[in-house]
Amino acid sequence: MSIFLYSTNNTIVDKNLIRISSNSYNSWFGRTTGIGMTTSYNKIFGNITITNNIIIGANMGVLFYPEGSKGGYDKIKIFHNTLWNISQTPIRFDESINTPTGCEMKNNFIYVNETKQFASKSSWSFGYNLYYNTYDVPDIYYDTTSKASKQLNISTIFNSIKGCNNYLYDLNIDANCFRPSKNPGKLKLYHSGAPLTNRVYWDYPNCYRQSSKNPSIGAFEFPQGCSEDVDPEPIPDTFDIKYKINVCTSAQLAVKMVGSLCNWNVGSCPTMTKEGNCTWTYTFKEGTSNSFNYKFVVAQGSMALMWESDPNRRFSGSTLASLANKIDSGIYEFCNYVRSGKLITLTCKWR
User: Fold this and answer.
1) pLDDT band for position 313 (50/70/90)?
2) Is 156 exposed, middle or buried (CB count within 10 Å of its CB: 0-12, 13-18, 19+)?
3) Side-chain half-sphere CA neighbours of 79 within 13 A
4) Does residue 311 have a cis bond before it (omega within 30 degrees)?
């Protein structure tokens, strides 16, 4: 598999060009897969977002299969991907041991060859996907907002670009060949997708999507470069806040955010996640709605072993949102901040 997620949670797979133009890594069932996911035995993984990827020439585009037929998934989002010349099935999710929730597949452009399996289909929400090489939207993905077409000139779907003559057989075709045409005829990608409610604000080449209208379907928003006549929506006042702090601990210890948000009770305060040797993170969803005092502690269970030195830090969501709307990065209280879309990352030093 070109990209492989194993028992992974809280992951974004975004803006990848996956091109499989060689048979060197074929398996017994054919060419390799573009993006594959699986779970360890009897485990459920989730909160995976797959956006703005271009997958060319794979055996399967996006695949989930449970290890030993015993595994499950939850909250999978597949938005704004372009899957082209897939030899078997574009998106396949095998049987899950759980009943998945919060799974969506929207605004994708898919070259359909076969549609073999999509178990637990009723757990998914489909919308505004376009299918090429079929007369009708395949039953396996069906919804009333999606469209399909078999009898059309491929070159009319995409913007006319030099060197894009052989769509069907050229696995080394330039990714820019998949930019949407403004005047395609029957099957329209340009500004025909579901309204952006899932924070996919930038396309494959980092052009801002027209979220005030219907965005384009597939990985590209515009026919040529970034449009100069786009009036992007203002970045919203509410952000997710990701805290990062660098402090090393022994294996059995953790880092917590202790403060007025949890009444300074070490046992009930948020435990941060270790990422890297000494880096700990914690994300507040829609965090700017909160205001509180806090500091970091090294903890073992509900016991604080070491508090960072005073003074306490102060978090005011409205103040941080106001600053981040003016500039992408800066200093907030005792932390550096960087804003990307609706996520603000606060990187703090242990004091």
Assistant:
1) very high
2) middle
3) 26
4) yes
User: What's the pLDDT score for residue 29?
Assistant: 56
| CB < 8 Å & 24+ apart, contacts of 310-316 | 312/259, 313/259, 313/348, 315/241, 315/290, 315/291, 316/291
Instruction: Provide the residue ranges of all domains of the chain, joining segments of one domain with +.
Output: 3-178, 240-348
pLDDT score of 6: 85
C-alpha distances in Å from residue 79, one per residue of 24, 193, 281: 30, 10, 26
Span 89-114, mean pLDDT?
Answer: 86
Beta-carbon contacts of residue 130 (< 8 Å; ≥ 6 apart): 108, 109, 110, 146, 147, 148, 187, 189, 192, 217, 218
Which helix H or strand E contains 324, and what residues bound it?
helix 317-326
Which CATH class for the 240-348 domain? Answer: mainly beta
Query: Are 132 and 151 contacting, i.e. CB atoms less than 8 angstroms apart?
Result: no
